[in-house]
């Protein structure tokens, strides 16, 4: 959970130890349509008598999206699937020791997927509110930045999205030390640890379909998540390095099927294969949503320099098939 903060938001980092090691936190703006009108969920903290978004500090080694989904569950009793990212917040506060500190909070739009709404941790009330009422009730002016972005996305018809995650296999045993066929090369200890971390990360986005190269190092990267969620790993030989070197065009087929289906999915493959898939996704990018060209730059960098081993690149997509448009991109590196 997050501690109390002081109102106000700094426009630039503060020089000193507070800025050097900011407290990392993450949260969500759960949203729904009620009788055709947009509503968002706020939480009330009795210890500070404030209304804000569900959020809290990252646990050691925790990924930002994992924290956002976990904290929302702990504060609201609701399970959510993260949608498109929203503007972050950075502000100063006094910690429990009375020291001035800086906090960085990252936010996502989110849709409720389950939970009974039972309140158990530091929150005594939650409220689904129309946008105008939510804006009035928010205690901190900085929290309206995320609300404005959410409303803009809704107005543009780009709030309801689904995630497609490209994953490069995690770190594997080196080729030079492996005597058996390369497709059988397993993850090393670091790769296995990254595969476990991906359980929470992929879970935050509610991934329900898993497609992978049949190479052991790719399948093993998604296997812990598949086991945790009771999902099937769908091996596609066309995503292997060996088949890609012979028939590169066929690697597009699994990606096209994911785009046609519109279900939250993850696709795991190899460094040489992924640039072609990234190029295909770049062609679906909605320029009206790519403010400052950040999404295009992220895809281009990942394709040109290569995705890191164990990286998860999250594409938020509106629509399916021929009408699918990419509205936001996130890169989560190990």
TrEMBL record:
Gene3D superfamilies named among the record's database cross-references: Nucleoside Triphosphate Pyrophosphohydrolase, Phosphoglycerate mutase-like
All copies of domain Nudix hydrolase, residue ranges: 21-151
CDD domains given in the database record: NUDIX_Ap6A_hydrolase
GO biological process: one example: ATP biosynthetic process
One annotated GO molecular function: bis(5'-nucleosyl)-tetraphosphatase (asymmetrical) activity
Keyword Hydrolase on entry: yes
Keyword Nucleotidyltransferase: no
Sorted UniProt keywords: Hydrolase
Annotated protein name in UniProt: 8-oxo-dGTP diphosphatase
């Amino acid at each position: 959970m997050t501690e109390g903060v002081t109102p106000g938001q700094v426009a630039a980092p503060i020089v000193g130890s507070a800025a050097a090691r900011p407290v990392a936190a993450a949260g969500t703006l759960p949203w729904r349509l009620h009788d055709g009108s947009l509503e968002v969920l706020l939480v009330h903290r009795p210890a500070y008598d404030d209304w804000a978004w569900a959020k809290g500090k990252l646990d050691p080694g925790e990924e930002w999206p994992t924290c956002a989904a976990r904290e929302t569950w702990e504060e609201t009793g609701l399970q959510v699937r993260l949608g498109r990212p929203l503007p972050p917040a950075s502000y100063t506060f006094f910690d429990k020791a009375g020291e001035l500190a800086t906090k960085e909070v990252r936010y996502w739009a989110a849709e409720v997927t389950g939970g009974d709404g039972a309140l158990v941790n530091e929150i005594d009330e939650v409220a689904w509110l129309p946008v105008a009422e939510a804006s009035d009730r928010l205690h901190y002016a900085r929290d309206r930045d995320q609300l404005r972005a959410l409303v803009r996305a809704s107005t543009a018809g780009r709030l309801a999205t689904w995630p497609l995650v490209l994953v490069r296999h995690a770190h594997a045993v080196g080729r030079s030390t492996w005597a058996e066929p390369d497709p059988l090369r397993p993850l090393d200890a670091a790769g296995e640890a990254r595969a476990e971390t991906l359980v929470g990360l992929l879970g935050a986005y509610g991934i329900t379909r898993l497609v992978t190269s049949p190479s052991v190092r790719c399948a093993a990267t998604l296997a812990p998540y598949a086991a945790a969620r009771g999902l099937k790993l769908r091996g596609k030989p066309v995503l292997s390095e060996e088949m890609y070197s012979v028939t590169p065009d066929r690697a597009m087929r699994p990606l096209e099927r994911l785009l046609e289906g519109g279900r939250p999915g993850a696709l795991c493959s190899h460094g040489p294969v992924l640039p072609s898939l990234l190029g295909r996704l770049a062609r679906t990018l909605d320029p009206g949503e790519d403010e400052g060209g950040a999404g295009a730059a992220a895809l281009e960098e990942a394709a040109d320099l290569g995705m890191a081993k164990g990286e998860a690149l999250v594409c938020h997509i509106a629509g399916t098939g021929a009408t699918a448009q990419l509205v936001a991109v996130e890169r989560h590196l190990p």
